[in-house]
Amino acid sequence: MKSKTDEELIALIIQKHRPALEELYDRYVKLVYSFSFKLTKGDREKTKEIVQQVFLRIWTVKRPYNPLQGKFVNWLLTITRNIAIDSIRKEQKQPGNVQLEPNEWRQMEDQETESVPLQVSKSLLKQQIQEAKQHLSEPQQRLINLLYWEGYSLSEIAKMEQKPLGTIKSRLHQTLKILRKYFSKETGGVQHGR
């Protein structure tokens, strides 16, 4: 199993090949744990729960990792981040819990454990995204911020914006189309994460 790529392991996991999941776990448990640990601000119990949920999600996911959409480690950290945010939100819905401010959600994203080249690449990508956002309308910019930077779901955004879910989905589709066109021009047709 050690000689298999992440993509090959995922293909085996889809077929419910347990040793493939164990190998993937061995490869990435430290990364997922340290990332979760930072997101939970050092809560070891919550971190362990998140790690379990991440690998359970990989085992049961309906839409598996697609190498054409980016690097495996980015996909894995996105799953981890989403599970951590869901966990924190669920906890906050219980009485007596403190709400996180929007800037704290953004700080959670910045606490990823990543290599220097990845940090530089991410910084450049953020700069390009800021430039690309200038091509978007105010509602489109707000949608991108809420969805990708603050972690809200499309249905949550629809409620906040007091718009039908279909309208929000359509707005997202148009927004991504504009961004894709912009990045295609900027990178000479080369897309990030490929």
Q: What is the CATH class designation of the largest domain? A: Mainly Alpha
User: Might you state the CATH topology name of the largest domain?
Assistant: Rna Polymerase Sigma Factor, Chain: A
Task: Tell me the number of helical segments per DSSP (H or I, 4 or more residues long).
Answer: 9
Assign the CATH superfamily of the largest domain.
Answer: RNA polymerase sigma factor, region 2, helix turn helix motif
What structural class do helix, strand and pairing data support? mainly alpha
Fraction in helix: over 70%
User: Ends: how far apart?
Assistant: 24 Å
How many structural domains are formed by the residues? 2
Architecture of the largest domain, CATH level 2?
Answer: Orthogonal Bundle
Based on CA atoms alone, the radius of gyration comes out at: 18 Å
Describe the sheet with the most strands: none
Beta strand count: 0
Order of helices and strands: HHHHHHHHH
So what's the overall shape?
Answer: globular
Provide the β-strand percentage band: under 5%
- Detail the poorly predicted runs: 109-116, 189-194
Mean pLDDT: 77
